[in-house]
Design a protein that fits this description.
Chains A, B: It comes from Actinacidiphila polyblastidii. Chains A, B: This is LacI family DNA-binding transcriptional regulator. Two copies of one chain form a homodimer. Chain A is an alpha/beta fold and 344 residues long. The first copy, chain A, contains 14 helices and twelve strands. The first copy, chain A, has a six-stranded parallel β-sheet, with helices on both faces. In chain A, strands 7-6-8-9 form a four-stranded parallel β-sheet. Chain A has a two-stranded antiparallel ribbon with strand order 10-12. The radius of gyration of chain A is 26 Å and the shape is elongated. The relative contact order of chain A is 0.12. The interface between A and B is large, with 58 and 56 residues.
């Protein structure tokens, strides 16, 4: 395996400073920490300072961590904790696991702002974090921010094109299979899929899972039953005409918001859920899924576990697969929107 | 006074960069902050960038803190960042304001667990935080955790009975007035209130605001138009019969979830929003309010500002009133669920 350090710049260490100054690491430590009673000649002291300046070495804000050889911080950069509960669930899982191993999580919220992101990563590097989790609120490919290369890092709910950084991601294909199986188990054979218009791992993975589940059940794939819609309530609402025209008895929706809009559209057409059409969502966004009429069967995105396992990979407790990935299953959540339709 | 810089390596400053590049500090500042409209020649800009790279200058708030010394941490304890976007919005506001003043926010998520809370506060004290924000996801009275007494602290979205700790809270009365005024402005005179069953500042404050707005409009308070319901979709759904029996033309709901359930119940009875009944929510929970059919007029809970002002009070930049409180207004958010009813 290629050494990360060959490819990316790494943080300057106390050892680097010691080497450049021709002194021991403990001499550097004494100079950095202004240790009382340490007998260090002016000459050596000057060389250490010069080396610190030349190399751009950043002394830690918390001196004791330098002495110990590392802080007990882990960093977590999140892009949208103010707009969905998803990032909060990732943080919850990461924090529980970090605390279990004696680490404190430094959380930074960037709301997708590049300057805030750069500042967050710089702040974490200055605090000599043991490593950084970089997380996104929806599963996607990311361009690695430059600063991340200076620390050990793990991507959570996202991945990079080159695949050299470990990534913990939801198993979209598994989720698509589970959602479709819930409908198949109730006897549905003509199952629609309202997918998203956005090219994404969720789009491709859930479609593949839908096709796999149909194949398991010996049902031929019919592309006319698959339609793309904007992944929100309005998208679901606008899909109703096409779904009814295809005489589907069950629909797997890209997410719970789409299902919520679909409910509204079906109601306007006089179609009942689940008697006329069974509906399954995706996300298990509690405030929506559990409180629709009827409550929505769905598939949970495992945000808590993404955060938890992200920390485990960062600390070397879990190993990613050969492709650098750890995938987390998406468990089904059964509620009243799926049942045996009277037509079967 | 001893100059710290004699003893310890110091962070690279903007002044160092200016000196190395042969430009003024303000030129460096403009380049670093990518200031629009600043007229800086390409040559000078290139020299500044080169100097930044050579010196390892990190253009962020932490650099100056290393020079100043002392912990630059603020703590923020939140009780429910995994279940609603509300805590995330408080964190966002607090973090933006903290960074503005060179502080890093240590965020701990307790999900209401007492052990996690005690551990979070202990961790913050260990890191010598400058102070702690203690926040709750809904506005309520709290018993002060023991550890909080050891640090400067500010309560955010909550308050203590004794009132000795500053508290930044939403102005529930103002919110209730704004919600009711939205209905009054469209000519409604018979306005229902679906309040919560939970005794809380939100219950009492919003009711008071409703009464004040009616009084302003010269409308007598009618207790038959006020009903309490569980503050979720099911509570709203179950209130429909009583509201229709009272022949209200407008309803102010305790929150957006209640309004969502009310929509479902009204639809089943063949009542249209807003033609037959206008509806106003509370919270502005985006994923619900903006995507109901029709989109819901509501009142925003100012979570971002609660976090932002919490930091300002902690740092002594804003002063609480004599009672220890800072109240933040709840602004109205107008969407399509309120309009002039045909009956008026």
């Amino acid at each position: 395996m290629k050494d990360r350090n060959e490819a990316a710049p790494r943080a300057v260490t106390m050892r680097d400073v010691a080497k450049a100054a021709g002194v021991s690491v403990s001499t550097v430590s004494h100079v950095v920490n202004d240790k009382k009673g340490a007998r260090i000649g002016k000459d050596a002291r000057d060389r250490v300072r010069q080396a610190i300046q030349d190399l751009g070495y950043r002394p830690n804000a918390m001196a004791k961590n330098l002495v110990k050889g590392g802080s007990r911080f882990l960093g977590l950069v999140a892009d949208a904790i103010a707009s969905t509960p998803f990032a909060g669930q990732i943080i919850h899982g990461a924090q529980d696991e970090a605390w279990r191993h004696g680490y404190v999580l430094l959380v930074a919220n960037t709301e997708g702002n590049n300057d805030a992101e750069a500042e967050a990563i710089a702040m974490m590097l200055e605090h000599k974090v043991r490593g950084i989790l970089y997380s996104t609120w929806y599963h996607r490919e990311v361009a690695m921010p430059a600063g991340l290369a200076e620390a050990d890092s793990v991507l959570v709910n996202c991945f990079s094109a080159h695949g050299r950084v470990p990534a913990v991601v939801p198993d979209e294909v598994d989720g698509g299979r589970e959602a479709t199986r819930m409908l198949l188990a109730e006897g549905h054979r003509r199952i629609g899929l309202v997918n998203t218009t956005t090219a994404s791992p969720a789009h491709d993975g859930r479609l593949l899972g839908y096709r796999q589940a149909l194949a398991e059940a010996g049902i031929a794939f019919d592309p006319d039953l698959v339609m793309d819609a904007h992944p929100d309530q309005e998208g679901g609402y606008e899909s109703v005409g096409r779904l009814l025209a295809q005489r589907v008895t069950g629909v797997f929706c890209h997410n719970d918001r789409v299902a919520m809009g679909l409910y509204d559209g079906l109601r306007e057409k006089g179609a009942r859920v689940p008697e006329d059409i069974a509906v399954v969502g995706f996300d298990n966004q509690e405030v929506i899924a559990a409180h629709l009429r009827p409550p929505l069967s769905t598939v949970a995105l495992p945000h808590y576990d993404l955060g938890r396992v992200g920390v485990r990979v960062l600390l070397g407790l879990d190993e990613p697969a050969a492709d650098g990935r750890v995938t987390i299953a998406c468990p089904p959540v059964r509620r009243a929107s799926v049942s045996t339709p009277s037509s079967i």
